[in-house]
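Supplementary notes for students who missed Thursday's class. We covered one full example, reproduced here. Read the sequence, then the structure, then the short commentary at the end.
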Amino acid sequence: MEFGPDMSPGDWVFDDDVAKRFDQEARTHIPHYEEVIEKCVVVAKTLPSSARIIDIGSATGYTLEKLRAAGFTDVWGVDNSRAMLNHSRVSENLLESGVLPREHGPFDLILANWTLHFIENREEYMRDMRDSLSPSALLILSDKMSCSELVHSQYHDFKRSQGVSEEEIAAKAASIVGILSTRPLSWYLETLEKLGFDTEVIDASWCFATILCRMRA
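Structure (token representation):
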């Protein structure tokens, strides 16, 4: 799939063409993409190497590969796109599903990076994540957040700085209408608090934020 003016609103799909270019696109469209994944590995290293970790929306397995390189073996990935899983760098413990596979838990660390903004029943999914955690477990959640026009403009400048063309910026924006929906950071923090988490923002840049969550004692 090539980005172009004939791409109609709402036609974004994680198909084979997207999977083939996903890693490069993620780096050029998500600020601090590498940094967030490295922070996830750093947080994981505070847990035993036997910790059970699941990456929700594992895509092409870049985070899974990093976790395995760090010595973790009980690592799982779940994605609802067969194309993404077919292109995964890691082939073990992959699950094709649009729901959280709680039967494979409990998990000591759940990663939900750049995934929940595609899920309509977001609070219900967050509750399922909470209920899938072991005692003293951790959750890391990253999403694109609702932001002002000023900040959104700076986000587009970030894309331009990564070599993304004006045509591609416009086409991508049109293609995710009705597919990716944002909510403000305050909604995430309030919802997580309601679900019993203590939260800390550990990364933020131009519309995106990453939240580290611990179950409240």
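Commentary. The longest strand covers residues 133-144. The chain has eight helices and seven strands. If anything here is unclear, bring it to office hours.
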